[in-house]
Specification:
169 residues, alpha+beta
């Protein structure tokens, strides 16, 4: 499910700690739990005021439909959604790779043979070592890149993370 800012200004959904720039979109199922989405009164408000849209199966849906879907999706329907979270089982194997004593890559494989890569997360740091971006790459069963996402950490002048924005990679 894709949440998109369709207004001409920044939209803030305070109870989800989310700010979206014009035309920015995120997959809300990757970013929030169903309960967080269902409890968000600010999301309902910005949807009701046509500041954001939610798309499901290429259709724009209402807040009421969103809530109905979140409360009635079957496991198989949920797994068919275009999200980076699926395809990682309990038997998967992950490893991390450090560069200059800081984690640079986290790779998840089907199993400990490391023959099939499922996901790779690349951590991009600034000169002071703070995380600036996380690039997530999802691979299919044949090892082909099928989806990527760039999460950008937006920092204050003091260096604390104020928000995280997400875009397709």
């Amino acid at each position: 499910m894709i949440l998109k800012n369709v207004s001409l200004s920044i939209v803030q959904i305070s109870d989800l700690a989310l700010m979206l720039s014009p035309d920015e979109e995120i997959n809300i199922l990757e970013s929030f739990t169903n309960d967080q989405i269902k409890r968000s009164s600010h999301l309902q408000s910005v949807m009701d005021n046509s500041l954001v849209s939610v798309t499901y199966n290429n259709d724009t849906i209402s807040h009421t439909t969103l809530i109905q879907l979140l409360t009635s999706l079957t496991v198989s329907e949920h797994q068919q959604l275009d999200t980076l979270i699926h395809g990682i089982s309990e038997s998967s194997y992950f490893e991390s790779q450090k560069v200059d004593d800081q984690t640079k890559y986290i790779r998840t494989y089907v199993d400990n043979t490391k023959s099939k890569l499922i996901r790779e997360e690349e951590i991009v740091r600034d000169q002071s070592g703070n995380v600036g971006q996380i690039i997530i790459r999802q691979y299919d069963g044949d090892g082909n890149l099928v989806e990527s996402e760039i999460q950008t950490l937006n920092r204050s002048a003091e260096g604390t993370v104020e928000s995280i924005s997400s875009s397709a990679g």
